Amino acid sequence: MTGGGSSIPEVQALLRVLAAGRNVVEIGAAFGDAAVAMAETARSVVTVERDPERAAVARRRLAGLANVELLEGDWREALGGRGPFGLFFFDAGPDYDFETAFDYLEPGGLLVKDDLTPGRPVEGDAAREFLLRDPRLAAVEILTTSRSAAIVAVRR
Ligand SMILES: C[S@@+](CC[C@H](N)C(=O)[O-])C[C@H]1O[C@@H](n2cnc3c(N)ncnc32)[C@H](O)[C@@H]1O
């Protein structure tokens, strides 16, 4: 089973707000916790998990949520042809393919990366370099707890 657990409640609360009325994609479903939170407010949620054991747990968890679709496999292959999305929750572990994620965003769409350590320099940090420096995005880094941060970026 791949490492990396579920998002913390503070991040789920943030996602619940940002997902409102939007078509959402999440990469890295894990056990479905964030998908459940986003489904409360989103128009639709597509969530992708490549670990078969985790996908099986998430499938049971998400069964019955009419606005959620779980895809199994690597997100780049699984998402082919879908989108654009109004919220992209980028949560597939140590994956820095933000350029591909950007292509799935509609104008005004949000790209969210959590699980960051606050106060780290931008240089040498792949997530911060892309999300905070790319001129096609406007972005803000926020604390989700006193010891964790997230970046919320919007496609201009
Ligand atoms: C931190 S967990 C996700 C937590 C979940 N988003 C939540 O908030 O509850 C990261 C997950 O990404 C999955 N993952 C990693 N690389 C992936 C890929 N290329 N495609 C799809 N899922 C991937 C891992 O198997 C793992 O379950």
Tell me about the largest β-sheet: 7 strands, mixed
Span from first to last CA? 37 Å
Q: Estimate percent helicity.
A: 25-40%
- Tally of DSSP β-strands: 7
Average per-residue pLDDT, rounded, comes to: 96
Element string (H = helix, E = strand)? HEHEHEHEHEHEE
Query: Which band does the percent of strand residues land in?
Result: 25-35%
Describe the global form: globular
Low-confidence stretches: none
Structural class, from helix and strand content? alpha/beta
Question: What is the number of helical segments per DSSP (H or I, 4+ residues)?
Answer: 6
Characteristics of this structure?
156 residues; alpha/beta; 7-stranded mixed beta sheet; 7 strands
Explain what you see.
It is a single chain. The chain is an alpha/beta fold and 156 residues long. It is built from six helices and seven strands, in the order H-E-H-E-H-E-H-E-H-E-H-E-E. The longest helix has 11 residues, at 52-62. It starts with 8 loop residues before the first helix and ends with a strand.
Chart the SSEs and their pairings.
Elements: H1 9-18, E1 23-27, H2 33-39, E2 44-49, H3 52-62, E3 68-72, H4 75-78, E4 85-90, H5 98-103, E5 105-116, H6 126-133, E6 137-145, E7 148-155
Parallel strand pairs: 1-2, 1-4, 2-3, 4-5
Antiparallel strand pairs: 5-7, 6-7
Helix pairs in contact: 1-2
The chain binds S-adenosylmethionine (SAM).
In short:
The protein has helices at residues 9-18, 33-39, 52-62, 75-78, 98-103, 126-133; strands at 23-27, 44-49, 68-72, 85-90, 105-116, 137-145, 148-155. With 156 residues, the protein is an alpha/beta fold. The longest helix has 11 residues, at 52-62.
